[in-house]
């Protein structure tokens, strides 16, 4: 039973204002970092260029990470201590959980937008590269798999928490290892897709510019909060930070090449009396799932 004299709860009575401020900034940074990606898909009304397997691995990895931190013994102690702490002390103690929860929620929004704005060819204009464009069936399978995975993880976690709490640590680390493995390969399909397209399309570079350095700051924050006991929690974001950095470098390289090509075309067009439109202005005559429903 946790009370005011419990050592773990006593440590939460005097939260560091520096750590609290840093944790709030990280929480806001996570939220803000995903907004460019949400906006890019919505503004383009297309999720073209985003690998379905990147979405699948990212969502399931995020689910494992969120379930991991919720079932971690240290988090369970923090939640129990909230019964004897005031609102500020409790909030400060749960910021680590909130950060992972916001990250999971933001990536789940990408899953929804990916399906909602999934590009399909119109009858008059079939895709020029059908082998590179995943099918709508694949998008639905990815969506359903993510939902089923969420339900299964939730049910198992609840059963272990209330029926066999002695296995909670093992389950938390299992989720952490699974999440790390999924995160380790999460960016590989997207790296491949971006490499084949030689363009980022609906993938947001500003999002990666914020998240790549932010991942390492977040790793440091989680490691300071949970220590080596929570390696399975912060290890996920260490791996994803490295791989996302590779994708960012690739994306910037392709965008710079595209910009140079546009500039060269513009100079050539002026010399020949023609004006070339930008790639963003080109109409690839695709419709999305949302447009089809309308």
From TrEMBL:
Keywords: Membrane, Transmembrane, Transmembrane helix. SMART domains: CTNS (SM00679). Its main location: membrane. The chain crosses the membrane at residues 12-32, 53-74, 94-118, 139-162, 168-188, 234-254. Gene3D superfamilies: 1.20.1280.290. It is a multi-pass membrane protein. It is found in: Membrane. Residues 284-294 have a biased composition (Basic and acidic residues). It holds the Pfam family PQ-loop. Residues 263-294 are annotated as: Disordered. This is PQ loop repeat protein. It comes from Stereocaulon virgatum. The lineage of its organism: Eukaryota, Fungi, Dikarya, Ascomycota, Pezizomycotina.
